[in-house]
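Hi V.,

You were right to ask for the full record rather than a summary. Here it is.
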Amino acid sequence: MFIYDSWYVAALATEVNSEKPLARMILGKPMVFFRTDEGQVAALEDRCMHRGMPLSAGPICNKGRSLQCPYHGLEFDITGACVKAPSQTSIPRNMQVLTYPVVERDSFVWVWTGDPEIADPATIPTTGPVNDDTFGLFSLLHLEYKADWKLIYDNVMDLTHLAYVHSVVNGDVQANVEAKLTISTDDDGKRVRFARELPNSVPPDLYAGFVFKGNCDRWQEMECSTSGMQLWNGALDVGCGALDGSRVRVGGFQLYTYQAVTPSSEGNSHYFSNGYTNVHLGNEEVFAKMREGHIKTLYEDRVIIEPQQVRLNETPGRPVVSLSADAAGLAVRRMFKKLLTAEMEKKAPPRPARSSGHQDLMEELTGGAR
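Predicted structure:
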């Protein structure tokens, strides 16, 4: 089950163009994304209202203002309205596909999957450092996982796995296992924050581009919502203020990443991520190595999570036992459960509209499937 009243990353901005539609399954909803010649991004239901043909299989036409169904040539504009039906002079009044609120921001394309009346772009989370002048973007990527979205959240929220899964970012194994953990929840119950402190620890390989005097004081802070997770990692020389409780840290090595986990369908997820750092700005050689490490880390996660999902599916009656390191992940699961319950209580799941006189035809086309 999914939480629909939320903004989700549907694509990297570079994936959406005015030359070819982009098909994507988001929370079980088939969507198609395209860009007008003026650069505006549109998101429509990927289903022609005539006979259910995926619109993503057809071309973008009319200077990027509409999609053409490849089956009978019907055209739908960015509002979802059918603007052309080649086989007749009039267009049926209900020949309109669904549209979704969509916003392009910070190299991501965001889509709202729930009630459009409450879609507020101001609630889209920040996905990078506040001060862009002192940070540079070194990585932007999209992977697909054959795993439930909540399982991916569990993995990211439990950073003790870094010591065993990730060769690039693990650093001091003992420090990772023994790190101090604090957890808090926002008053509105829509965000969970956690922080870990790793004092006097060995710098990980990922930090090799920055020279410390010896060991370093590391921090790992994260804010989690239904849209994704903002992770702020970094280190300063021992005793230089990294762990004094301040939200303002200057110098050292700092790394911001946004991890957007968007459910695709039951048991499948999209994983979008970016990466910013404050060191070696403009040095493409170093940035390329950091990008390689970023990609490697997410692949290492996938190698763990996908077999885990398979085994969990094979043993549905067996329990799982949590450890103290799972506290942040459990807090996030409680948040998700509360939001899902509130959404289900507020409104019943949408039911397909019945088109008078056409229900029997639809049953014939689908073989009676419901």
